[in-house]
Amino acid sequence: MFHRRSGVSGVQRQRWRYAIALGLAVSASPAWAQGGGSPDWSAADMQHELELEASVTQLAFSPDGTLLASATESSLKVWELASGRLKHRLDGHRSPEVDRALPVTGLAFSPDGSVLASTSWNPGVMPDASLKLWDPATGELRQALAGGQGCREVAFSATGDSVWAACGRDVQRYSLESGDVAERAEHFPGELLPQGDAAAAAAELPMPRQGPAAALALSEDGTRLAWAGQPPTYPTPVLRVWHAETAAEADYLVLDLPGMTTTRDPVSLAREHYSLELPNPVTEERIEQWMLDSGEVRVMLTLNNLKDDASRAWRYRLTFEPREDGRWELVRVERKHQCRRGPTEPDEWTTRSCV
């Protein structure tokens, strides 16, 4: 059984036009589809793993990728992605009929990220407001709309001056300026329907024992995935944020093979040839291993905080093919690095020489 352990890295910030609920929030126009290359989710890094008190049912990225909104049956939270810190715990949706929070059924950020919309619907219980608009910067409630009719999916218009919500028997467009219903329709406008595939990205993640997802969200640039659920061996639910490099970002320098290439333990061989004796106590080693669909084994060895004036980190990618005797043969070794002073940004992986 092959598994993977991942660490934390930085967050790129991209715009996201909308989010649509039902637990799967996806991008309308991923940046990688515009020329950046397809993300490789089989080699994704886990940026954060956050322990939760209850299972998440809804997720949404902010347009600039700096915030993540999550909802459970009884809570609504906003997370700061750079640090993994809880930024706001919002009051959520309530009803004068019961003394508890009502489940959130939809989440969406406005195109400029200045408004977070949440919806609620609970059979037999009328919420005080089925559609609420929050300020994600302060955590304050800005507007309470739709009364007690109950709302499900939610999405902002492309201009951000109105919000669509499936409330009651149809779909309504609410004006943010007046709070009134400006338009009604039987279905969401076509341009607001999901076009990305968060479930497909999650299926490729290099953690086969992660278990089923309770909620997913894919960022606009298509390279960040939020996964919520409870892995079989975990005592509590968790929220994981993954980052996948595009083909353009994933370039490696091919290295010569070492003298010994066959082994029964690919991780041990990788450490033997490419790990460091760590005289620097701040240097961090991370080793990851998983099985590819081709039957090959991929090992990723990352060394961070190197005691080196030019290079900040090295990352080795090793590919092993199976042999009949139960051994694995190393067939390809690749490397890239991060530079301290350029020519690239400190958190950018490159094959260019560091200055």
From TrEMBL:
Residues 1-33 form the signal peptide. WD repeats lie at residues 56-89. PROSITE patterns: WD_REPEATS_2 (PS50082). Keywords: Signal, WD repeat. SUPFAM superfamilies: Calcium-dependent phosphotriesterase. It comes from the Bacteria. SMART domains: WD40. Transmembrane segments: none annotated. Pfam families: WD40 (PF00400). PANTHER family: TRANSCRIPTION INITIATION FACTOR TFIID, TRANSCRIPTION INITIATION FACTOR TFIID SUBUNIT 5. This is WD40 repeat domain-containing protein. It comes from Billgrantia campisalis.
